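Deliverable D4.2, example record:
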Amino acid sequence: MTAPEKMHLMASIVESEVVNYLVDIPFLERVEMTRLVMLANMCSYIYVRRGQSVCVEGEVGDRFFVCIKGTLQATLQVSLNAAQPTFAPLIPGETGRRSSVTSLHENIGGAFGDKKIKALKRMGAGSYFGEISLVFKIPRVCSITALDDALLVYVDRTAFCNFLKIAPDAAVVLLEHVRLNFLDTLIKQGCTFLNAIPSRKLQELSYMSQLVDYETNTGGDA
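Output generated by the structure prediction step:
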């Protein structure tokens, strides 16, 4: 077998594995298999060395990631002067079935000035994150760092929007997924009004809600 043939075989194996992971993602579960194969073909591969950041908290991203191999850690900077939070912030891919949760109060990086690094979640093969960036241009809510060498695939916002043209149902489910995540975050932040609503009614509320992508005016005009 020649080198190009080996590369083609390896790419085919990885592509098949990507499709298997895409099937497990909640907002893609209604998408036909043929469409998922097309989405897998749109994905790009990225190899991340141990200690390298995939996403940085506060930076605006436009990529949705799926971990194929390796282990990743989600972390958050917490002010040392602020009261300890009683809630966990919205974590990318929190509904991923293959993710394992670590303690919010685990200190994995020490203090940096008046900030302290807190561990949120450890993720392995099949875990996904960054789906909100496919819909909104908002800063990343946490950093994602490789605990060991890792292989990931990603699709950017432009490619995913093109995919939605042939799989419009995925857009509806994704928006519902994002709405529920936002409502869940508000509940964790102590919104007593939402906390009193039964989960079934909360889902109905998410159907009625609208998500607005608001950008502040940076040009200095009123």
